[in-house]
Automatic annotation (TrEMBL):
InterPro entries, alphabetized: CAP/MinC_C, MinC, MinC_C_sf, Septum_form_inhib_MinC_C
NCBIfam families, sorted: minC
Lineage: superkingdom: Bacteria
Name this protein carries in UniProt: Probable septum site-determining protein MinC
Ranges where the Septum formation inhibitor MinC C-terminal domain occurs: 124-220
Alphabetized UniProt keyword annotations: Cell cycle, Cell division, Septation
Function noted in UniProt: Cell division inhibitor that blocks the formation of polar Z ring septums. Rapidly oscillates between the poles of the cell to destabilize FtsZ filaments that have formed before they mature into polar Z rings. Prevents FtsZ polymerization.
Family: Belongs to the MinC family.
Subunit structure: Interacts with MinD and FtsZ.
Keyword Lipoprotein: no
Amino acid sequence: MSIELDSGTILNTQEKNLPYISITPHNVKSQYLIEALSKLPNRSQMIAATLDLINIKTLESPAWLRQIRATLRQNNLDLIGVFNPQLNLEICKSLKIPVLSETTPHSPTSLAQRISSDHSKSTIITKPVRSGQQVYAKNGDLIVQGSLSNGGEAAAKNSIYIYGKANGKIIAGANGNTHARIYITQGYPELVSVAGITWLAEDISTAHGPNVFYLNDGQLIQEKL
């Protein structure tokens, strides 16, 4: 489905596998995004969004991108990356918003490939992972569309995305992939590990909003998104 506003502002949605919205604004007025989101059917099923700034030729303030991200969060959507930032590249970097390089951002297949380097090998869990349960994506990313309870374990060869409260053990890059990341929307994990570099609960700050864990020069980093 596509939604077009303001002579070209388009929202494309894809509900198979990883539900997402691809946003291409034609001007910097935030009310068009808010209006478009209010018209989107099955909005509660969406979990992620990308932003394509191909039509934004001006240098905007960090507050503009923060407002977009805040609006998406109010609609339970995570901004997972920006295409074609142009003059706003450094602002995206300073706000820790991933810059994406796919040249065909509106293709449902290509979006799935961006989120997982090998979509066909990704594992998507649509139910909560409860205490005593283990889920493992041995060949790709792991996407959990629910919570991870204390005593539960989520592991993957590549990155892990948990779109719910994350309180269990999270192990990304299980085969030594140092580029793997862990994304959570909130929670206080018992353990996080990326490519064998591990933190226990006492090393982790409670996430009251979206956080990412990743390696930088061999050190595990936790950052707010």
